[in-house]
Structure formats: C-alpha cells, structure tokens
Amino acid sequence: MQKIAAAAGISHPAILHHFKSREGLIEAMVVDGFAKLQAQFVEGWPSLKDPDIDGVFDRFYKIASDRGVARLIAWLILSGHTLGGPKPGMLRRAADRLHSGRLRRAAEAGLPAPPLEQSLFGAALLAIIVLGDSLFGPTMRAAVDLRSKEDAARFHRWLIKIVERMDRR
Fold first, then answer.
1. E strand or H helix at 33, and its extent?
2. Is the preceding omega at residue 51 within 30 degrees of 0, hence cis?
3. Of 104, 103, 97, nearest to 126 (Cα)?
4. How does residue 78 score in pLDDT terms, banded at 50, 70 and 90?
5. DSSP 96-138
6. How far apart are CA 56 and CA 11, in angstroms?
C-alpha cells in the first residue's frame, strides 16, 4: 500500500482513511474494474454491424487485458475471495442485447427465432475466450511460434470469425 500511495502522490494514511484497509482498497479496485468491464462489453450497441461480435471482442479485450481485469478476476476466483467479484447476471444485459439482435435478424430473414439459451451460451463463450486469451493468449501463441502483435491481431480476427460462424448456424 505504501508503493501505491507513493505512485499516487498521497500518504499511506490517506489511503487507509479512505479505504479503511487493504481489502477495502482491493474491493474498490474490483468494483471499479467490473463496472468498466460491463460498460465496455455493451458500449457501442446498437452498431451498424449486428451482432457486433468483433466490436464487443475488441472493447471487452481492452478492459480485460490491457487494464488487467482478467488477472484480477483470476486472482479472485483462485483465492476464493468474493470482494465485489463476478456477480450472477453481471453480463446478462450484454447477452440480452446479443439475443435481441439475433431475433431481429431471424425475423428479417423469415427464420424461426433462435432460443435465448443459445445467446446466453454465446455471450458466456465470448467472455471465456476473451478472459482466457487475456490471461494465457500471449504465452500459448508464443508456444506455437506466433509472437508478434500482428500474429495476435490475426489470431483475434480468426477467433471472431469462428464465433460469427457459430452464430450463423
């Protein structure tokens, strides 16, 4: 906490006064991270592309990977902490938006409505892919000799195509 205080340019007692404890600081970071994660997941809807899987992937990946939320989620789960962690239904709003887009497309094409469960599975799969890639992607890609940023970008585009193909079925 002293390093955090020094980096923020405030005193260690100021952090303790505001957050009460180390756990209070961690919980505030978790709550803030999850709020940003949920906002990133649904930001930009509706878009010109429906469903906007690549847009969702990019926005979600930025917050999960670049801002370290995936590592924080992994730590919470593996350590058994619940400090403001993933709550049941946290991504339901995003799944509902995905489903409404799928319903609209099916109606426009004169096809039967897709089951809600498929959209929930799709949203869960997309979250698992992004969180897993945020945690292990660079190491796993390097293990198969895909090391550059361009390799990562091509891999992400490939993942998006797979998820989009699954949606077309």
1. helix 22-42
2. yes
3. 97
4. confident
5. HHHHHHHHHHHHHTTPPPPPHHHHHHHHHHHHHHHHHHHHHHH
6. 39
Contact of 127 with 60, CB cutoff 8 Å: yes
DSSP letter (8 states) at residue 111: P
The burial class, CB within 10 Å (0-12 / 13-18 / 19+), for 110 is exposed
CB 137 within 8 Å of CB 152: yes
Helix, strand or coil, per DSSP, at residue 37: helix
129, 56 Cβ separation under 8 angstroms: no
Question: Tokens for 43?
Answer: 């930001």
Tokens for 40? 């990133």
Distance CA 87, CA 63 (A): 17
**Residue bearing tokens 């403001």:** 84
User: Which of the two residues, 90 and 74, has the higher pLDDT score?
Assistant: 74
Cα gap 150→138, rounded to integer Å: 12
Whole-structure pTM value? 0.71
Q: Which amino acid is at 47?
A: S
Q: Say if residues 134 and 62 touch (Cβ distance below 8 Å).
A: no
